[in-house]
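#help-structures
NK: newbie question, is this the right format to request a structure? protein is Thioredoxin-like fold domain-containing protein
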Amino acid sequence: MAALSWKESIGNAQAVQEETVATAKAVADEEEVVDLDAASETDTAAAAASAQPEAVTEEAAAAAEETTATEEPPVQSGPLVDLFGPTLLSLELTGPSTAQLKEHYTTDALQGKKVIGVYFSADWCGPCRQFTPELSSFYEKINSRRGKIDEFEIVWVSRCRDMQSFGQYFTTMPWIALPPQEAMGARGEKLSQMYGVKSIPALVLLDDLGSVITTDARNMIPKDKAGIGFPWRNPISTLYMTVVPRSLRLMLKRELGSIKEKAFGKVKGLLNLRAKGAKA
């Protein structure tokens, strides 16, 4: 093999050095590209991660709004809602010696009921405590009749003096009740005056539109314990209920109510004018 001159050796060394530098630069460039790609992927993942909580938050907000919308009370209307208000209570046993009040919308609680009893009673009243078990037995008997199951409901209007008495006395009843603050307040007084309740116990029977069937059911039950004549409508009322559809009866009831209200307003206005004239 021929020996290389020093110039050739230097030239070869420079070529090798240049080749090494070029290779190192290419590797560095390649590594730089890889690093940029990795950084790009990392940035994308970070952006997705930072955006994810916002998306979850939006979904949670939407779910919360949906839940809130679901919990909004339904719009209720009708003569029974006008009488008893938007909610009624039942008492549910949660243990051998514990119970809790459960709230129901009035339209749901009285849906499908053909006869509604309005029961005025109190724990401090001796005759009430004697009559309530008899009424409970009668209530169960009527609601177990074939073809008329659960068509009779009673709404208790408490005349108790406090919440503790209300709760204890309610445990003896299988029906529903007006909320105690309503029963012991203005609504209870209004119902009492509306049906002319002078003493308790008193039981008023209404039809499914809130029209009075009888205000003397308290005295009818001992006379007709089997409930043969229940709900003790007069023949004309029975014929009216049979012949006239419910929708038409509701329309007539509203019209009559409007006429009564207008007539009452006019009479009240005339009385006020007379009173002012007398003072003058």
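mod (FA): yep, format's fine, and the tokens are attached above. The first strand starts at residue 87 and ends at 93.
NK: thank you!
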